[in-house]
Design brief:
Shape: globular
Strand order of the largest sheet: 3-2-1-4-7-8-9-10
Organism: Aureimonas frigidaquae
Helix content: 25-40%
Radius of gyration: 18 Å
Largest sheet: 8 strands, mixed
CATH topology: Rossmann fold
Number of strands: 10
Family: Belongs to the short-chain dehydrogenases/reductases (SDR) family.
Number of domains: 1
CATH architecture: 3-Layer(aba) Sandwich
Protein name: Probable oxidoreductase
CATH class: Alpha Beta
GO molecular function: oxidoreductase activity
Keywords: Oxidoreductase
Number of helices: 11
Distance between the termini: 21 Å
Structural class: alpha/beta
């Protein structure tokens, strides 16, 4: 196991905002791609990166809404990308590669949480397909634009605590549980960063995953008021009731820190929270704090990479897979 999975002593913390992280940082000349960069944490990430001088491509399945949300943010362009549509993902990658631009930062942020059962492509479970597979394909197909120095950030969640990869039933063919499906997809995000970093180091590519914190965003669109009340997130009036929730600006901070700070630069493949490398969950007395070993196991990460590649090949995408072994 990776004994580097321990805090580095960052000067930032849970209350830090994305703007705090980038205070005094000059990203002029840098190019960032943020999936889902027009809503919730993604929008705050886009604002912070653009505010520090970066050019930002907001990759969104709803370009009209993305255009309205990002109007007036200098340096931002919007491109269509739906992680559920692999041919659309390939089209986005091809368009981006055709410009010859180097991507300095790729933030795989778009996702869904605890959705009703949906099936994607040839019948893949929707949360696994959208949260993991779409970003797996996007990142590997953008590889030529990432080589030579880039950071890839995979937005995971403390939700990974609820489920490792369910190798006996990844696609939930034997009964669907929306929270286990979400947890598995977030474990997949973390494991993807582990193996991606292992493969990418020789090309100057480093990868990190992270828990942004609990934040009220459109991610909760599939949850009822009763569910959020039962979880202690809101009160009967619908007002926030959990003081540990962050603002969207605070929630975006860890992704921005992992993408730009020199402090974690030589480490890679690690899971972060509160603008630092996270500790092991097994060493914490608090629930849903730190990272569980099943989300950082290199053997599991390599197995997931092989499985993901095989899924894409079986769906008829053989000619589109980049061999990074």
């Amino acid at each position: 196991m990776d004994d580097r999975q321990k805090p580095l002593g960052s000067t930032f913390g849970a209350q830090t905002t994305a703007s705090d992280v980038l205070a005094g940082v000059d990203l002029y000349g840098k190019l960032a791609v943020v999936t889902g960069g027009h809503s919730g944490l993604g929008l705050e990430t886009t604002r912070a990166l653009a505010g520090a001088g970066a050019r930002v491509i907001v990759a969104s399945r709803d370009c009209a809404s993305a255009g309205k949300a990002t109007a007036g943010i200098q340096g931002v362009t919007v491109e269509r990308l739906d992680p559920a549509d692999l041919y659309g993902v390939r089209s986005f990658a091809d368009r981006t590669l055709s410009t010859g631009a180097h991507i300095d930062i790729l933030i795989n942020n778009a996702g869904i949480m605890a959705s009703p059962e949906i099936r994607v492509g040839p019948g893949w479970e929707g949360q696994f397909a959208i949260n993991h597979l779409g970003h797996f394909a996007l990142t590997t197909w953008l590889w030529p634009a990432l080589e030579g120095g880039a950071r890839v950030i995979c937005v995971s969640s403390a939700g990974h605590h609820t489920s490792p990869i369910r190798w006996d039933d990844i696609q939930f063919q034997r009964g669907y549980d929306k929270w286990l499906a979400y947890g598995q997809s977030k474990t997949a995000n973390a494991l993807f960063a582990v193996h991606l970093d292992s493969l990418g180091q020789r090309s100057g590519i480093r990868a990190f995953s992270l828990h942004p914190g609990k934040i009220f965003t459109p991610l909760q669109r599939h949850l009822s008021q009763a569910e959020m009340m039962a979880a202690g997130w809101i009160d009967r009036a619908g007002s926030p009731a959990d003081p540990t929730f962050k603002t969207p600006q605070q929630g975006a901070a860890t992704a921005v820190w992992a993408a730009t700070s020199p402090q974690p630069g030589g480490h890679g493949g690690l899971y972060c929270e509160d603008c630092d490398v996270a500790a092991r969950a097994e060493a914490s007395a608090e629930p849903f704090v730190g990272v569980r070993r099943h989300a950082t196991d290199p053997a599991e990460a390599e197995r997931l990479w092989s499985y993901s590649t095989a899924l894409l090949a079986a769906s008829g995408m053989e000619g589109l897979i980049v061999d990074l072994k």
